[in-house]
Amino acid sequence: MSARFASALLFCAVLAVAAYVPGLPGEFVYDDHRLIVDNDGLKRPFDPSRAFLRDYYASDLDRTGLGYYRPIAILSNELDYRLGSGRALMFHLTNLLLHIAATCCVFLLARRLAPSGLVGPVAAASLFALHPSHAESVAFISGRVDPLATVFVLATILLHLRANDSDRTWPWRVAAAGAWLCGLLSKEMAVTAPVLAAVFEAGTEGFPSRRDLKARALRYVPYFVVAGIYLAARVTALGRLLAPSPEGATLSLSKPFVALGTYLRWLALPPFGLNLEPEPSGGSWAILAGLGILAALLVMLSLWRRGFKVELATASAAGLALLPVLQLKPLETALSERFLYLPSAFVMTLVGLLAARWCLARGRAAAIAVVVLLGGLYVANLLPRSLLWRDEVKLWKAKDAEDGGSLKARLNLGRAHHRRGDDVAARAAYDDAIALAPGLAPQIRAEMTTLAGDGAAGDPAGDVRRALAASPGDGSLWGNLGFLLFERGDLTGAADAFARATELSPGRATGWLGAGLVKLRQGDFPGAEADATRAVELDPALALARAIQGECLLRRGQACEALAAIDGLRLDDPGQREALDRVRAVAETACSKGR
Description:
28 helices; Serine Threonine Protein Phosphatase 5, Tetratricopeptide repeat; globular
């Protein structure tokens, strides 16, 4: 590595740090509370297998999750929690390190595609480091899944291209496949990595002839092996292949074009302000923009024979990287800037490649001046955003003001005030939310009663009962009450609460789980088994329900069947794990004796 190369890479890494240093003292915000602050699993002894056996968003009280399988992201949270004693600073530092790593990968990719000179790689990596859309992925702790996946996707592409240049090709191909597996285990968006590698391969080597097609296809065998491993692990942990679509979501032919047009506009002209998960505008301009880009790709195809193969491959990679978030399958979040982290790597690489061509044609000064000007605009946009993500109250106030009134922002603002102990401000935020959505007043008042300090201190069951007085038809609240009463030993009250939960929300697995726990404690083994079976049918990943099934079978004298039911089962809670181990030991002994 030459001194100029190392200096250029270091310069880009410093830029990646500079804009986010002011946000390092930031607090936990938004999803951080569910994934980190309120995650009891982080407070238990470290067990790496736990990350591979549960949904990313699952909690001890609600094991259903959202259908996301991200073990490496969970492990990174586990590591940060222990290294930083639970403080937010360590999490922010890790996000910053991931951003540096992604920036360096963009530099290396641009260098690989434009080997003559360093202007192209520096331009690509610098603009990537400073792009305003990355604030949500870097300054927001739980946004780290995108930088994490991006690092592994770019590593997959770089290793794949390196294998093509190497005499010892297979070690590099195995390494590329391993990087892809890590990307898949970080975020589902990494699924496109082998296709992206093929696109860049075509851009650098051209399309294979019929005679070379078999040899080219063999390069992708390790990816098929990795796909099988990943799919098996995902189905085992989640009980399903795809994440369920949001309730009430429908497919639409216009949504992909609206999303594509919006994302491309954000990449080219990042809007000022927070821009946190805005609602799709649905305007015709977005559809026209999407159609315009498709037309532009057709035009670029005509340039394939004119020496723009690498540029076309890079532009195509940006579009392909967007496919998983274009609402081809309805997503929980319609639009989000954090989805742009990976596509922006290719867009900025394309800018770097064009800058390199400009340098060759017209000299470096003009190209450098344009890149510096664009970088300055990016910094002016990025810095205020990264500061907002360090303060939860300011974040949601900015979201509410930017949207001209946002129910989501006002509810989260109430929660943020409550966490700071300012229940007066919390009630005011909830009242503002009710003013915005009066039809949801009972549910909002129920949450306000629970969170804003209206209940007696130290009486969570009382808080939930008061919330139920405002919203008696909320099945999840009845389930929460059931678990609280079960922990107190009030089996009769818990049974009644779970009966109401399953009546009101029969599709929610946790209500049936709670009912099974109560019946197991009461000695009603057939009833407990029936409820646990219903819970497993609704959520196959609910390990505790399977454990109840096993214990009930053992109690009914079916030791071998019990052993089969709990085969390979692991539980997070130490007490539950010990009970499961006792059931397993008794079942193994009884089954071996033929009883």
